[in-house]
Amino acid sequence: MAGPALLCAVVPLLLLLLAAGGAIPPPEEAARMARFVLHNCDWGALATLSAQKGLRGRPFANIFSLSDGPPGPFSGSGVPYLYLTDMEISVQDLEINANASLTVSLAQTPYCKKHRYDPQNPLCAHIIFCGSIVKVNDSEAGLAKKALFSRHPEMETWPKDHNWFFAKFNITNIWVLDYFGGLKIVTPEEYYSVKP
Known about the structure:
Elements: H1 4-19, H2 30-40, E1 43-49, E2 59-65, E3 81-84, H3 89-96, E4 99-105, H4 110-115, E5 126-135, H5 138-151, E6 165-177, E7 184-186, H6 188-193
């Protein structure tokens, strides 16, 4: 049986690993890396084609809070959920053209700073998803709500008159940059079939 001194040393280490989402996957496991990075990021850069006057048809990137599930290892679904309102400028773009790209990066976590990786360094992994934004149906809304509100509790207090709704990023293409030698392509089938 472990003594109290050993437990005092091991428990904080286990909590640290759980908080960090576990060990980073190796570069040869691109699908797991994509799931790992998404699950450990609380926000992403969403790029749309602008429908706004003076910018129509031009790329427009904006920051959105997101979640694929509650924090902790093995609790992510891989589906990026968002909490949106039609009042938001990028959502207005999506109403005209639902196609978008979403980028998440380990630069958003303590990982890259700890290793002194510049955000542009390939070892500071980032994932680019292409696809479209769709409103979730009633059967999926509870899952989206749990995923988002567990990471972003402030969302529950946002003004009700803004007509917030739950949406998801419907992934069609995935590119992983997590090592030297260029982008890796991961299919949605590969992505959803691996355990993060």
